[in-house]
User: Fold this.
Amino acid sequence: MRFIRSFIPAIRWSNSLTFKRRASIDYLVSSLNRTEDTYKDEHPSQKCNIKKLKPSEIPPKDSTKLVISPNELTDHFRYKEYPKPTRRQISETQALFNNSSFKLEWTLDKYDEIPYIKYKRLKEEKTEKLSKVEPYRKTEYHLTQLNSKKTFGIQPEHLKPMPEVLLLGNTNVGKSSLINSLLVNREENKSANLTTEHAFVSKRAGYTKTLNCFNIGNKLRIMDSPGYGEFGELSQGEVITDYITKGQSLRRVFVLIDSVKGFQEEDLHIIDFLISEGISFDLIFTKVDQVIQKFMPKKLINSKHANKSKSVEERVNNATLIKQCNKKVIDYFGSMIEESNMSNLVTLPKLFFNNVQTNKFVPGRQGYKEIRYEILLSCGLVKEDTIGSDTAIQEETMMKQNALRKKTKVQRLM
Assistant:
């Protein structure tokens, strides 16, 4: 039985997404900070003689450096309403995650068994039981029991109130892989091949059967949920819907979309459910590396020396091919977003592009830093910049100039 069917008795689906009824503006076109000119313009080699190219205009030997990245896709599809986080904000986010310890706090298949929910229920039951004792039968024992701080065998640290975020997605969309990417430590952050498996990753769809809680430095909790859709079960749907509708600590839901498969029917139903419940959510496109590699030139994919071109002409030709392929990647995701009608929602979700696996064209993990920032922002653990956008852009430009500045050679005094 498909897991998404478990939502039918728990929620009322509408026949379509909640749209802005009187919208007369195509938000997908008007609200995005487009950078199409970067990929639309022809390479200078098509307009002038290669011999006349300046050294700064000659493409790099490693042509894969020109391939559009998940980070650039996030920037491309960013709505005007949501400013890009500054380097200072990303640095603060990285520091918090790098200095925090991560642990799997609990894993449960029933909402009522969540530690703080269970404690509240048992506390109320005990209070109600003691209140039924007749006044002339009450003793000091009853008063002690009423004021007792007994935790009913639940670990006290599990009862600490903390903000929570939930990861939702279809089976095998990559939720566990994303969690492992988000929880990399300082050393693992330096290499794409290093990672600690906090959440078990299985190639078998529907492997995660329970709601798993990860404690991030005793500051927040990240919830990994069972995948909906194929191989899902009714009980899994019940625990997730109960958590979404009753969870008082839930701050944000992140819906994961498989970039290869695109929006599926179950994804749209879940989004409709979140809207009807008034739950804030954002979208994370996973497996972006597979889409990028799919649109890259076959001659660069199959050639072992494609990224070691030495002749200027060959480098220019490769650069032209890659820019055309970058445009295809942008069009692919643009069509996917437009066809899903996400741009017609009353509240526009933020769009993030992420990869966990790497390949020749996407050599490192990308996208997770900004997702980390959004998690902390939704939990109130970082603040949005109050400086103007022009000042932020100027600061970003200065940082890039400082990074590119070369050390001047100073002659030694003899």
